[in-house]
Amino acid sequence: MNATDPTALSNADIAREIAALQKRAFERYEDAALQAEADPSRAETIYAKAERETAPLIARATALNDERVARYRRRAKRWRNAALLIGAVGAAFVAWMMSRTA
What we know:
The chain is mainly α. The protein has a domain of about 70 residues. Helix content is about 85%, strand content about 0%. The longest helix has about 60 residues.
């Protein structure tokens, strides 16, 4: 598992790492399910072990997803501010044009 700071990764790297973490976690849970099916008396222990082993993977994926969401929110805020600015400049221009023709 790559322990690089999420803020240092590109959007594509974040997406790839989240996908890899999900794949590893699902594989671990599938393996646990097969083991529990083979030995039902130990199922609870097997699932608890799988949960402990996947906890760091889930925590890393959560941190990566939190960074991705923060980036999208910052981008949306920039676009919203740009749209408001363009709207205000456009309204001022229209008002100026109307005042010139009157």
